[in-house]
Automatic annotation (TrEMBL):
The keyword Transferase applies. The active site is at residues 11, 145. This is 4-diphosphocytidyl-2-C-methyl-D-erythritol kinase. Keywords: ATP-binding, Isoprene biosynthesis, Kinase, Nucleotide-binding, Transferase. Belongs to the GHMP kinase family. IspE subfamily. Catalyzes the phosphorylation of the position 2 hydroxy group of 4-diphosphocytidyl-2C-methyl-D-erythritol. It catalyses: 4-CDP-2-C-methyl-D-erythritol + ATP = 4-CDP-2-C-methyl-D-erythritol 2-phosphate + ADP + H(+). Residues 75-153 form the GHMP kinase N-terminal domain. GO terms for molecular function: kinase activity. Its EC number is 2.7.1.148. The keyword Kinase applies.
């Protein structure tokens, strides 16, 4: 094989319960991940030029608003491919092409998704045949959200979000995502969450999974799911980007079953009762101030998968 393309979904957090700051700089979480049908594609190809002096791993990025995506070794997909080569115990070469549809720095784990896709693509391109358990381990070292992008579906993450247990769900849920101009830095949003808690004199609670949320997922009950959605990072994201409050309010006013900031934001997620309602809702939200674009998607969908 001279090129492998992998399709990988975005995620929305159905529950993000943030515990205390740990010694290692991370927070203990209960993080209910849900993979939605908004995809990036990563192609790993054997370098055509045979230029052995070039960097062993090169990356290009295509798509809208990709200016902030690094095309250096800081790119999470490059780091993932390097970590995979390390695990295999030798150096390998690949040209990576990332085609982005997942918003950049949007709270939908786009960078993590690309890292997961690069692991699957390079594992195949280089004929390593590493089992998914090994890819999961490498993924957890790259970032807290990377293992879920391999797994997909709906799952609860504990620890810093990397220890995953798949969840049983029924049916399909329909979503609208309101994309905002510019991203929000994840460490900054976590820091603001700590600061707001300190200012209010509130101790960080021990995170626990919502039983109401689990029941709604099991039963495929979109109305109950809408009421059970929660995100402890939302007050921090709203403090850093006050215009998101208007976006959320517009979705609620137009009948969304639930509305929340996705992860660390600034993307806002709205649950609708059907695909048709999601399209209507998207049309009603798109002109709200601070909203750059809207997209509809459904979930759950599978994790990183070789395309075609
Ligand atoms: O794991 P990842 O590199 O994606 O995390 C990015 C940043 O998000 C971390 O550096 C940390 O500031 C914050 N984070 C956290 N607690 C978690 C996950 C992420 O504080 N459980």
């Amino acid at each position: 094989m001279s090129a492998i393309t992998v399709r990988v979904p975005a995620k929305v957090n159905l529950q993000l319960a943030v515990g205390p700051l740990r010694e290692d700089g991370y927070h203990d979480l209960v993080n209910v991940f849900h993979a939605v049908s908004l995809f990036d594609e990563v192609t790993a190809a054997e370098p055509a030029d045979g230029d052995l002096s070039a960097a062993p791993l090169r990356v290009r990025v295509e798509g809208d608003h990709t200016g902030e995506v690094p095309v250096s070794d800081d790119n999470l997909a490059v780091r993932a491919a390097m970590a995979l080569a390390d695990r295999a115990g030798r150096s390998y070469r690949a040209d990576l092409l990332i085609r982005k549809s997942i918003p950049v720095a949007g709270g939908m784990a786009g960078g993590s998704a690309d890292a997961a896709a690069a692991l699957v693509a390079c594992n195949e391109l280089w004929g390593l045949g590493l089992p998914v358990e090994d890819l999961m381990e490498i993924a957890a070292d790259i970032g807290s959200d990377v293992p879920f992008a391999l797994l997909g579906g709906t799952a609860v993450g504990t620890g810093r979000g990397e220890r995953l247990a798949p969840l049983e769900t029924a049916g399909i849920f329909h979503w609208v995502f309101a994309l905002a101009d510019g991203g929000l830095s994840t460490p900054r949003v976590y820091g603001e969450c700590d600061r707001l808690r300190e200012e209010a004199g509130v101790a960080a609670p021990t995170p626990a999974v919502s039983e109401a949320l689990l029941a709604a997922l099991r039963e495929g009950d979109a109305k109950a799911l809408g009421q059970a959605l929660s995100n402890d990072l939302q007050p921090a994201a709203l403090a850093l980007r006050p215009s998101l409050a208007d976006t959320l309010a517009a979705g609620r006013a137009h009948g969304a079953l639930g509305a929340l900031v996705s992860g660390s934001g600034p993307t806002c997620a709205f649950l609708a009762e059907s695909a048709e309602r999601a399209h209507e809702l998207a049309g009603l939200i798109k002109d709200v101030d601070g909203c750059r674009a809207v997209v509809t998607a459904h979930g759950p969908v599978p994790g990183a998968t070789v395309a075609g």
